[in-house]
Amino acid sequence: MSPNASIRAADSRAEARALSAAATTAGHAPSIHNTQPWRWRLSSDELDLYLDRSRALDVTDPDSRLAILSCGAALHHALISLAADGWHTILARMPDPAHPDHLAQLRLDHRIPVTPDARRHRQTIKLRHTDRRPAPSTPLDTGRLHAVGAAVESTGAGLHLLRPDQVYDLAAAADHAQRAEAEDLAWQAELHYWTGGTRPLGSGIPDTAIPDRATQTTVPGRDFGHHGDLPVSAEHQNDAAFAILYGPGVGEVDWLRAGEALSAAWLTATELGLSVLPLSATIEVAVTRERMRSLLSGLGRPHLVLRFTTGDPAATATPHTPRLPTDQIIERF
Ligand SMILES: Cc1cc2nc3c(=O)[nH]c(=O)nc-3n(C[C@H](O)[C@H](O)[C@H](O)COP(=O)(O)O)c2cc1C
User: Fold this and answer.
1) Quick check: 251 pLDDT over 70?
2) CATH number for the domain whose boundaries are 3-127
3) Of 56, 94, 243, 304, which one has the fewest beta carbons inside 10 Å?
4) What is the 3 state secondary structure string of 140-166?
5) Residue 308 CA, ligand 1 centroid: distance in Å
6) To test the ligand 1 pocket, which listed residue (193, 203, 280) has its Cβ within 8 A of the most ligand atoms?
7) Residues 277-285, mean pLDDT to the nearest whole number
8) What residues does CATH 3.40.109.10 cover in the chain?
9) Whole-model pTM above 0.85?
10) For 142-310, which CATH superfamily applies?
């Protein structure tokens, strides 16, 4: 083999490795009920992201907005992995209008210097997790929340921090949404499938991540229909901040971008010592989604509610939720 040919062969092996690492890293992303509704197709020079409807929630999320949002978080994780491997990536969102489940296409363009931010974010991907415990009584400082807001804005989305009076509106809407959902037997069955004892291997929410009693919070967290094993305090929590993640429109590409913004927000928050809990019930129910929209006063369309609390350094780490084996989410060509 000529020296040039062997350099080209080494380059293409490095590209294939970086793309494979990106799809694997993306598997750590958060997703509604830990459904992991993504599928990656990997070839030697391209990585394609698809929505996997077999893992979407037909009852809770009939438009697949939260499934696509989850895929957007996975996409952002993949982009971080590529940047941390020193690649500038060309990204096409919704590249094929005839196939709306084809959410994104990534191609490696040229080498770039690796920034400390990219390296740190890639490490944070493995540390990030959902924390459903009430906050310790440590006030949140607004500087850290503004840094999270800036991370969201860098992706083209916005984060609206709710005022105390708006938090009471959110609490009422969350209560209403959860009651409406709980009356629906099909919804209960779907929740139980993903978060009960029969959840599919490698996915769903295990009892170790579900509070062992009802949490005393102003805005109710997800009612999983049973208590889990996660020890939580019996004290009332009042030191949380709540925000609405929003974007300019409603449609597949908006939900995908909202997921990218969620990943950016969550990684930054984790690095700043903040815990994050997504609360999607008010987005799942049309009437409360409208209520969230009105809280934005024309800023944009609501995609997800987020609770921020100061991480409790004294608390034991919550165990990580499981993930599907890579051969179930990555197809290699
Ligand atoms: C779009 C979306 C909506 C979510 N909604 C909720 C929610 O309403 N309540 C909740 O407790 N967790 C919610 N989560 C957190 C997921 O359950 C969590 O990401 C998943 O179980 C994986 O766990 P991990 O984040 O610890 O890796 C949501 C996550 C996403 C991405």
Assistant:
1) yes
2) 3.40.109.10
3) 94
4) CCHHHHHHHHHHHHCCCCEEEECCHHH
5) 14
6) 280
7) 98
8) 3-127, 142-310
9) yes
10) NADH Oxidase (3.40.109.10)
